[in-house]
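Sequence, please.
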């Protein structure tokens, strides 16, 4: 219900009640302006995008914290969201009313992230969380539209993956120490993600069939969680070197539960692994992480003639597109294959030319 009434001071008061029966009003010098305001409100109600003008006064911090509290997601995703909000978005933009944040504010926030030296991928992850928060605010009719529009993000470093050499992997395995040498060997020989490796149980290894079954991962807090995706649940064939290393590891450091445990019998903590691999890499002068060992595994498969589908399957990639995006440059022989195809196609012509040359001599 809407109405316009003239007040004793000569102004025109326009008012209406929203679907929650709250009254809203504004005063205008002219009746035509009051009517125009009511028409705009009525049109937004008809379109279904009406927003209570007072809803946007809530701060971004208040809304984002409420939004985060009701999200249903994996532990890894929750950690990413919490870090993006707590460490970046809320300290920068959280103090102001959510309706006051403009596209230029978000672009400035992105520029601020870049100026801190964050990688392009990290900036994109934080921005994605930001966009989700504002999209939810639009759905909740807290704001009429999201300021996350036409935001320019930094371009990532699309440099080609350079896997470590077998000599570098061997040096890492030696430098990391006897207790954890098998971790390096298994990562390099199976392509598992570090969370997947830390989630392995002893009975996930089939020593007879020489396979490792990946059914779960262990998050950074130490809790077991589902693997990253359906394609991440897989059985990975491994060579005898990996099997022998695991057998020797369990003989020296027996466990009835987790495959890799510390001196107290607890599953290898993530912080401990980071400390170990960083120290080993520094000691041998190699820039390497667990993912570097995954790249080594992929590159070895490709060099051995594995197809894109084979590499995708054992790595647990969701699609071949991901595999090609990361490793296309490692597939050998494109130039040689072109030469071979053209030689085969032109060989009759070459024979003909040789024959003609011989007949004219």
């Amino acid at each position: 219900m809407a109405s316009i009434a003239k007040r004793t001071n000569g102004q025109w008061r326009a008012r209406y009640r929203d679907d929650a029966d709250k009254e809203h009003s504004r005063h205008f010098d002219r009746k035509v302006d009051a009517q125009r305001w009511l028409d705009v409100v009525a049109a937004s109600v008809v379109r279904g995008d009406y927003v209570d003008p007072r809803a946007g006064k809530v701060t971004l911090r208040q809304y984002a914290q409420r939004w985060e509290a009701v999200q249903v997601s994996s532990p890894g995703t929750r950690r990413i969201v919490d870090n993006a909000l707590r460490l970046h978005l809320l300290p920068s933009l959280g103090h102001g009313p959510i309706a006051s944040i403009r596209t230029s504010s978000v672009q400035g926030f992105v520029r601020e992230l870049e100026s801190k030296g964050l990688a392009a991928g990290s900036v994109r992850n934080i921005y994605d969380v930001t966009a989700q928060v504002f999209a939810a605010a639009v759905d909740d009719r807290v704001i009429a539209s999201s300021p996350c529009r036409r935001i320019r993000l930094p371009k990532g470093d699309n440099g080609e993956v350079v896997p470590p050499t077998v000599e570098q992997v061997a040096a890492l395995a030696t430098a990391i120490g006897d207790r954890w040498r098998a971790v390096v060997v298994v990562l390099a020989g199976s392509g598992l993600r570090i969370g997947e490796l830390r989630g392995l149980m002893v009975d996930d290894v089939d020593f007879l069939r020489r396979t490792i079954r990946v059914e779960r991962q262990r998050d950074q807090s130490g809790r077991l969680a589902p693997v990253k995706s359906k394609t991440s649940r897989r059985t990975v064939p491994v060579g005898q070197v990996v099997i022998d290393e695991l057998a020797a590891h369990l003989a020296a450091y027996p466990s009835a539960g987790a495959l890799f445990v510390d001196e107290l019998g607890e599953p290898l903590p993530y912080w401990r692994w980071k400390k170990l691999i960083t120290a080993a890499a520094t000691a041998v002068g190699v820039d390497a992480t667990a993912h570097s060992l995954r790249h080594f595994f992929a590159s070895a498969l490709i060099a051995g003639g594995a197809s894109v589908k084979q590499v995708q399957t054992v790595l647990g990639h969701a699609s071949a597109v991901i595999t090609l995006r990361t490793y296309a440059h490692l597939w050998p022989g494109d130039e040689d294959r072109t030469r071979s195809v053209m030689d085969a196609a032109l060989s009759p012509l070459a024979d003909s030319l040789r024959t003609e040359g011989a007949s004219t001599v």
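Residues 14 and 218 are 60 Å apart (CA to CA).
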